[in-house]
Amino acid sequence: MAAQCCCCKAPGAEAAPARPPPEPPPALDVASASSAQLFRLRHLQLGLELRPEARELAGCLVLELCALRPAPRALVLDAHPALRLHSAAFRRAPAAAAAEPPCAFAFPAAEPGPAPPPPLPAFPEAPGAEPACCPLAFRVDPFTDYGSSLTVTLPPELQAHQPFQVILRYTSTDAPAIWWLDPELTYGNAKPFVFTQGHSVCNRSFFPCFDTPAVKCTYSAVVKAPSGVQVLMSATQSTYVEEEGVYRFHMEHPVPAYLVALVAGDLQPADIGPRSRVWAEPCLLPTATSKLSGAVEQWLSAAERLYGPYMWGRYDIVFLPPSFPIVAMENPCLTFIISSILESDEFLVIDVIHEVAHSWFGNAVTNATWEEMWLSEGLATYAQRRITTETYGAAFTCLETAFRLDALHRQMKLLGEDSPVSKLQVKLEPGVNPSHLMNLFTYEKGYCFVYYLSQLCGDPQRFDDFLRAYVEKYKFTSVVAQDLLDSFLSFFPELKEQSVDCRAGLEFERWLNATGPPLAEPDLSQGSSLTRPVEALFQLWTAEPLDQAAASASAIDISKWRTFQTALFLDRLLDGSPLPQEVVMSLSKCYSSLLDSMNAEIRIRWLQIVVRNDYYPDLHRVRRFLESQMSRMYTIPLYEDLCTGALKSFALEVFYQTQGRLHPNLRRTIQQILSQGLGPGAEPSMEQASAGVDSEVDADTPALLLGDEPPSSAISLRDVNVSA
Predict the structure, then answer these.
(1) Is 320 within 8 Å of 195 (Cβ atoms)?
(2) Do 244 and 204 share a domain, yes or no?
(3) Are 323 and 181 in contact (CB under 8 A)?
(4) 24 lies in a domain?
(5) Contact 318, 234 (CB under 8 A)
(6) Staple partner for 88: which of 138, 160, 239, 241, CB 3.0–4.6 Å?
(7) For 546-579, how does the pLDDT look when each residue is reduced to its tens digit (9 = 90+)?
(8) 3-state helix, strand, coil in the chain (%, to 5)
(9) Which residues take part in binding Zn(2+) (predicted)?
């Protein structure tokens, strides 16, 4: 679709501004259709109107750019079929435009049916300026199944390094990045709710952009929302303009497109520290406040001692309804986290600290391509564990690390040691959604490499000093692995002289490009006081004879254990399932009632043991759990397990009783799991549920991770219970 084009006067009549120093072009990103390497994006302005009844977002986007070469023919942006473009226009940028929000936005009108394009937005005129804007031709072409390319024709003879604006007006409906919730999918059941989730490549359905982590810019936004709805964004400044009925936001530091985030709903704040507050639905706010009051400032202060000043001003947290598709997301200034995690204290602590660590590693210094996601996640995981060691001691950190490395090896068994996604430098093939690269190798193998680097220098504090210098050097930019490794060897010249990057079997290149498990793992002996009892109890339950083992095991009071200890024990039992029926019966007699009173991270693991061992006496607990859960992280793993054995009809029955309380995206995912083996395009019917009809299920077909497409390997969500 193209707009009518008119001839624009070439914007070269005036002298070009002084030429800035040349900038290296962004790294080539096969997940982006954009022409980001031809332009410098200085700032973007968003004007947004939320229309929850229509599940539609109307937007006016102003991109402030300059070309890196003279006379570029077109600007290519990442877009999405869910995004309908109404018009494109060009304007020569007024002086200091990047510092000024747009004066006014004219939003596309809500359209019950076809309608003529609405008028262009109004912008302030600069003294003596040419006419504000002139229309540009544009077209939208297919790119991949997760996006489109938007090509906007530019005026001829555009000078290099001369600022200009491209103004796009659009509406977005059924966008993968924008999650609309009806009131009944919230805790309060009173008001609609909406949030965005941009990682990895979803924000191209939120607004046209250079949807690549290689490109960063500042942004500002004006948001109009229904009365009584609180709007928040990942921004350093926010203001509600009551007389205009709009929220204004500004992000003063450059961020990649995927970190632009919005949430709106029945949210109330509570301060939990001098620079932090939590936002949550009113009924959740007391719990969220009591769990985090004072703690976040403690974690921020520890991180600052290690890696330098916190750069983002405020660190706020918003708790989202269970429909949030992942556990947590490190949006700058405003961490998004699923409210379901509130009942699992230790998981809450680790997840929030991980997002705090992203403030330095991921948000300030970002991986330039999705093929090197470990540069954000591996470093953030290392920093997270340094923060937990400083705050809670080495034993707790080693326990959490052992728990995650256990999950990494479990994933390795599923994928095989030659799986290409087990590389740190993954080759992303054209058309493959980068979200499918989200796995524990990104986090834990990346962590092991960073830990190995820290051991090379012989002193964790010296390595902290290096990371502080690395952040200072590269903050607000995007990097590749070579940047990190070159900086490391420059900071430690004695290690460079020793050629540590070429040590046989531990070469840096091999760390990056070899498949399989980490080349070296950390020494976790400082956690043995917490991990040894877990191993001992597991050995008791797998020993002979059973009656003596059960008697000895029952003398160990796991109610006094940490959550990660109990979860590690249950994971070991899961790995050994199916177990002999008499063992499952004894386990149930010993632990079932106790575990049923614990948090959801514990309960789901016990219930997976019940399902994988077809232990019918405890199926009522599975039903009750699924009736009370609405999140992907606590439903998908159970439905996967139910559908790989003799309990498919039970799964169908429970799903049809609970589906009305699930988000449509989650419903579709579970239907996909249930329909495996029913034939192409088939979905389970109510008759099948009530009649108990079962069918063959491919046990290696996974549920979805972050998007609507199945990933390339069978990975349970409980093994990827980490941030984005």
Answers:
(1) yes
(2) yes
(3) yes
(4) no
(5) no
(6) 138
(7) 888 788 888 899 999 999 999 999 999 999 999 9
(8) 40, 20, 40
(9) 354, 358, 377
User: How many angstroms separate the Cα of 233 from the Cα of each of 175, 259, 261, 334, 376?
Assistant: 18, 10, 6, 7, 22
Q: Where is 279: in which H helix or E strand?
A: strand 276-280
Q: What percentage of the chain carries pLDDT values higher than 70?
A: 84
Name the residue with tokens 């514990």.
602
Read off the pTM.
0.89
Q: Inter-axis angle of helices 345-358 and 563-575, to 10 degrees?
A: 100
The residues, any chain, with a CB within 8 Å of residue 42's CB and separated by 6 or more, are 64, 65, 66, 98, 163, 217, 218
Cis-peptide into 220, omega within 30 deg: no
The domain boundary residue, chosen from 525, 544, 571 = 525
Specify the DSSP element, H or E, that contains 668. Answer: helix 664-675
Q: How far apart are CA 75 and CA 639, in angstroms?
A: 45
* Tokens representing residue 541 in the block: 């339950």
Least confident of 230-234, 352-356, 710-714: 710-714
By the 8 A CB rule, do 339 and 319 touch?
A: yes
Hunting for tokens 């070991």 — which residue is that? 572
Domain C-terminal end among 236, 266, 296:
266
Going by DSSP bridges, is the β-strand pair 365-367/477-479 parallel, antiparallel, or unpaired? parallel
Q: Range of 182's domain?
A: 29-94+131-266
Same domain, 520 and 536: no
Question: Which residues are designated catalytic?
Answer: 355, 443
- Domain total for the chain? 3
**Residue 358 marked ligand-binding:** yes
Answer whether residue 473 is part of any domain: yes
Distance of CA 130 to the CA centre of its chain: 43
| 596, 651: one domain | yes
What is the dihedral sign for C-alpha 155, 161, 165, 166? positive
> For residue 689, is it within any domain?
no
Residues 77 and 209 occupy one common structural domain? yes
User: Phi and psi of 228, rounded to 5°?
Assistant: 85, 0
- The answer to whether position 641 is within a domain reads yes
Question: Which residues make Cβ contacts (< 8 Å) with residue 698, sequence separation at least 6?
Answer: 676, 677
Q: What is the 3-state secondary structure (H, E, C) of 384-406?
A: HHHHHHHHHCHHHHHHHHHHHHH
